[in-house]
Design a protein that fits this description.
homodimer; two-stranded antiparallel sheet; about 35% strand; globular
């Protein structure tokens, strides 16, 4: 059982950082295509992908953005966070087996609305920046802990 | 078999529009959580969600952004598009059963780099704006058609 902690607005000092990591699998590609409807063959068809500038299948850019969402919702600030906005710049392709790490850094606070801006960078296993951007969130109202929900079993193929 | 058409840079006149629609299912929520690692209980645990401002489970904001990715990759400009950036403002919650429509509108072109900017709006079945933003893409080099890949069978539960 994984425990997720919420960090409230008052504890989110500027410069605070957190990370979240995940490795891209074949299953991730297929499930992202299924849930989003994005069946672009560059993500799914190796023969097609050979004819692209990338020469092999790559992740959906928005899959890497999903990891940013996961980092915000499960680590910093954690459950109760309301996602208001995100800017994304896709810098490098992400290949099967790449181990990505999202790095979050609190960059600004707006006391009136309790909004927090967070720099969001995603690096691969070679420390190369693959996605850069920033998020705007409303932080959780109070600190707390919640058990991460169990997901139903998912079978592919 | 679904055919996906690529629209090259020269045919992307300013003001051209396209749409892409998808309805949020329980399976979509679970698969997005699985592929991204975003197990925020507001998306997965109805009891937890009752205690939030939304009173019920909502979609991951980045799931709706995935629909924008699908619209760009499969409709306008279609396969061969390289996704460079995306700005997102999450305006309203998306609930189970909501039927979303992504509306794309070509808003700018940069001849030197062949980059195209596209306004990206996502509406629900009541024509309420749920996500607003804009995308920057490199358009496909030439027109063409490709068969949408078949996805492997996915079973949940």
């Amino acid at each position: 059982m994984k425990i997720l902690k919420s960090i409230p607005y008052d504890e989110l000092e500027i410069g605070r950082t957190a990370t979240f990591s995940k490795t891209l699998t074949e299953e991730d590609l297929v499930l992202f295509a299924r849930t989003s409807g994005d069946v672009n063959p560059v993500h799914l068809d190796e023969e097609f992908a050979k004819g692209t500038p990338f020469k092999t299948r790559i992740a959906h850019g928005m899959w890497s953005a999903g990891l940013i969402s996961a980092a915000l919702a499960t680590v910093l600030p954690g459950p109760g966070t309301i996602y208001l906005g995100q800017n994304l710049s896709f810098r490098r392709p992400v290949l099967l087996g790449d181990a990505l790490t999202v790095k979050l850094t609190v960059s600004g606070k707006q006391d009136e609305k309790k909004w927090v801006t967070i720099d969001t960078e995603v690096f691969n296993q070679d420390d190369k920046l693959v996605v850069k951007g920033d998020a705007t969130v409303m932080a959780p109202a109070k600190s707390g802990e919640v058990t991460a929900p169990d997901l139903p079993k998912v079978t592919v193929g």
